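Title: Comparing notes on inverse folding

I've been comparing how different people in this forum approach sequence design from structure. To keep things fair, I'm posting one structure and asking everyone to reply with a full sequence. Here's the target:
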């Protein structure tokens, strides 16, 4: 991810994050609003729906945990690099991958809701959406991930405004 300033870096990360979350959110709103008017639900027994609910939620937790540890591992590797610009550029691509996976996991919930009409997937979508925003790339989080100190930390926390 190329950027000219720290402010532009976070601007691009935020825009990408919002765009990625809009797709599952729009699909969820549309299908939740039309769930009672259309009948796209598969004819599944309650047991199969509960197994699907458990399986999809377990897979979501596994995916989210894997991505969490992958980001930590990549960030730890990036702390050894010199230069704030290079660190932020490499971390930007890692954070983009995390946002993409979080959006894909969030997209699974409305899809399952459409197929099963089980409200457990609506609750799971809310939890996934909450997890998405908890892991939002903020200046404090980026500073903590890269273990920045001194001037680099001030630069990131103030989005490049500290030394103007």
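Reply #1:
Here's my take.
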């Amino acid at each position: 991810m190329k950027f000219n300033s720290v402010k532009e870096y976070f601007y691009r990360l935020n825009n990408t994050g919002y765009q990625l979350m809009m797709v599952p959110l729009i699909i969820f709103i549309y299908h939740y609003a039309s769930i009672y008017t259309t009948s796209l639900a598969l004819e599944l027994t309650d047991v199969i729906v509960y197994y699907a609910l458990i399986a999809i939620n377990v897979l979501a937790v596994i995916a989210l945990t894997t991505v969490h540890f992958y980001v930590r591992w990549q960030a730890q590797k990036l702390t050894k690099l010199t230069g704030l610009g290079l660190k932020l550029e490499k971390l930007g691509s890692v954070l983009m991958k995390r946002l993409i996976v979080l959006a894909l996991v969030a997209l699974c919930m409305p899809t399952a809701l459409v197929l099963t009409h089980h409200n457990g997937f609506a609750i799971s979508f809310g939890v996934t959406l909450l997890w998405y925003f908890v892991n939002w790339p903020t200046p404090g989080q980026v500073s903590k991930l890269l273990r920045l100190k001194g001037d680099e930390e001030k630069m990131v926390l103030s989005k490049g405004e500290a030394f103007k």
